[in-house]
Design brief:
The chain is mainly α and 131 residues long. It has 6 helices and 2 strands; from the N terminus they run αβααααβα. A two-stranded parallel ribbon has the order 1-2.
Length: 131
C-alpha cells in the first residue's frame, strides 16, 4: 500500500494504470528438487516431528503448483482464478492507497486497474467481481 501511495502522490491527480501481479509462480516457490532433498535429509536425521511436518506440507504445496513450463502455465488472470485472494489483496491495497492519498493530499487519483492476460469473457467477469 505504501508503494502505491507514493506513486499516486507523485502523479498528482494524473491517470495511473496499475497492472495486477502476473508472477511466474516458480520464482516465488522453493525449488522442487531442493525441497525434496531437504525433507529427505530431515527424515534421515530424525528431525523434529513438527518441523518435518511443516517441510512436508510445503513440499506437497510445491508439488501441487509445479509446472513443466512456468512461463506458459498459471500466469496472469489464471492465477487469480485459482487464488482469488491474490487479486483481492492487491485491489484492497490499491483502493486503501487511493483513499489515503485523498485524505492526506486532497488529491483524487484517476486509477485504472489492468487485469493481465485475459483471454475469455468469463475470466474478465470473474476478475471484475473480485476487483
Amino acid at each position: 500500500q505504501d508503494d502505491f501511495e507514493g506513486i499516486f502522490t507523485a502523479m498528482k491527480g494524473l491517470p495511473v494504470t496499475v497492472r495486477l501481479l502476473d508472477p511466474p509462480l516458480h520464482e516465488f516457490l522453493p525449488n522442487l528438487v531442493e525441497q525434496s532433498l531437504k525433507v529427505q535429509k530431515m527424515e534421515n536425521q530424525g528431525a523434529d516431528a513438527g518441523e518435518l511436518d511443516k517441510e512436508r506440507r510445503l513440499l506437497a504445496q510445491v508439488k501441487k503448483l509445479h509446472e513443466q513450463n512456468p512461463m506458459l502455465g498459471t500466469r496472469g488472470c489464471r492465477l487469480g482464478m485459482l487464488y482469488p485472494e491474490i487479486p483481492d489483496m492487491q485491489a484492497r491495497a490499491i483502493i486503501r492507497a487511493v483513499l489515503s492519498v485523498l485524505k492526506k493530499e486532497g488529491e483524487t487519483v484517476q486509477i485504472h486497474i489492468m487485469i493481465p492476460l485475459v483471454f475469455t469473457p468469463i475470466e474478465l467477469e470473474t476478475h471484475r467481481r473480485i476487483v
